[in-house]
Amino acid sequence: MITLYDHPRSGNCYKVRLFLSLIGQPCRREFIDVLARKNQTEEFERVSAFRQVPAIEEDGLAIWDSHAILLYLAQKYAPQWLAPLADCGQMYAWISVSTNEIANSLQPLRLTRVVSNAEAAHHLGVSEALLDLEGLQRRTARVLGLMERRLTGRDWLAGGPTVADIDCYGYLSLAEEAGIDMAAYPALAAWRRRIEQLPGYVPPGQDA
Questions:
Q1: Do 124 and 146 have their domain in common?
Q2: 156: domain CATH number?
Q3: pTM (two decimals)
Q4: Calpha distance 129→127 (Å, rounded)
Q5: What digits encode the pLDDT tens for the residues 47-94?
Q6: Pick from 92, 101, 118, 150: CA 20 to 30 A from residue 169's CA?
């Protein structure tokens, strides 16, 4: 069975839990208390090279990074979640949006709302004085605006639904925790509802 090294408040961990539920794949969850720095050990580094959650182990194979995990799971268990050749470039491009644009805007903005600024700065690897909240808000608004335009008139990011939708949904599902009013983004809100109607869907904070 897959072991998932997990933290319940992490959007990156949530997207892996969600995908496992969507594809009907069971897992054993092992809680890693990142706020207590329980991930900062040499033992955990053997599973996750950068000591980050989520990570999984299966049959002696360890994989870390939520994006890599989603692709591994789709390739092994659910190839229907991979885009056909005509759309695969878009699928990978939107996975890249999750790894870069969302990870550098909405994800840290939400972090500043759910933990102290000092704790957020620690996890972001900067001093508290360098936390640029206004910059995070501007970048978040830009990313959400671009995604809104992408999803206006289409149901999914890349053909779809694909792992790209789940990858981007992880933190988009938590947008309200970042102080985002999703009424300003009707196409994005409708896309979230489509994901929430998929068989096997579990909301953030609920065990799969």
A1: yes
A2: 1.20.1050.10
A3: 0.92
A4: 5
A5: 888 899 999 999 999 999 999 999 999 999 999 999 999 899 999 999
A6: 118
